[in-house]
Design brief:
The chain is mostly beta strands and 272 residues long. 0% of the residues lie in helices and 37% in strands.
Length: 272
């Protein structure tokens, strides 16, 4: 069950289901050399040596994982660091792929109370995962997933079309647990922690109780992370990820359609 939690030490304005948070800037940039369109070497993701509690805190277990930057513009221009910056870590165990994201966002904004209405135009974390790294189209099927995790904890994706051919937006809250926290530090940081169950391409909405995949050492997967950034506009101003995507007809926003733009990861035993 998706969770929602925060510790806030800043001014909070809540108006008609809008959340607006002002945050100080975080100055960092971690180099990333992944480029879509080139042969990509799988990045190692290590098994955690200690249980991870999803509470939005960077526990000691995370010291075994390396940071990876969110520094590739997918939509819009790459924001200035005093507007948005981010990076993340991954770990795993038999039951979950774990994600810890460190975000600085000048304004956190959630304008839509309906979790299935234009959720991509609110601030949200988008987790792309391909269980068997097969690539290919997944826009209206479950060959891969594009989980949009909202500030209120809801998890949205696109499912098979409705009978009339219209797009079927769905909630998959039970696929992951997530919590985020904001601490007043210098600079102020938001930590967003996720425990993600991994489902195969055979997942269906008719069989939602199907068991997720058990993760094992040596498993190959496809993965990409991105963040929708909106500073109180009707639509998001920026969409920033960790993989450089080769444009198709001038468009880099391909992750929700084609899993081939994800980067490969390989699950490894605990890092020594």
């Amino acid at each position: 069950m998706a969770g929602f939690g925060y510790i806030l030490f800043w001014d909070l304005n809540v108006k008609k289901n809008k959340f607006l948070f002002n945050a100080a800037a975080l100055s960092f940039m971690v180099a990333s050399s992944v480029s879509a369109g080139e042969p990509l070497e799988a990045r190692d993701v290590y098994r955690t040596t200690a249980p991870i509690v999803v509470d939005g805190a960077m526990d000691d277990a995370w010291q075994a994982a390396s940071w990876r930057a969110l520094d590739k513009a997918i939509i819009g221009e790459l924001p200035q660091e005093n507007d948005f910056s981010g990076r993340y870590k991954l770990l795993w165990d038999e039951n979950y792929l774990y994600l810890l994201t460190e975000i600085t966002d000048e304004k956190l904004f959630d304008q839509h109370s309906d979790p299935l209405f234009k959720y991509w135009d609110d601030d949200c974390l988008e987790v792309f995962v391909d269980e068997n790294n097969s690539g290919g189209n997944h826009q209206f099927n479950f060959n891969a997933f594009a989980y949009h995790i909202a500030l209120d904890g809801h998890v949205a994706d696109i499912g098979p079309n409705n009978p009339d051919g219209s797009t079927h937006f769905i909630l998959l809250d039970d696929h992951l647990e997530s919590k985020w926290k904001v601490f007043q530090q210098k600079p102020q940081k938001l930590y967003w922690e996720v425990a993600l169950k991994i489902y195969p391409e055979t997942f269906t909405l008719e069989n939602r109780n199907a068991e997720p995949v058990k993760l094992t050492e040596g498993k190959d997967m496809g993965f990409m992370l991105a963040y929708c950034d909106n500073d109180q506009s009707e639509i998001r101003e920026s969409f920033v990820g960790d993989v450089e995507i080769t444009p198709k007809n001038g468009d880099k926003n391909l992750g929700y359609i084609d899993a081939s733009v994800f980067a490969p990861i390989k699950l490894r035993s605990a890092k020594r």
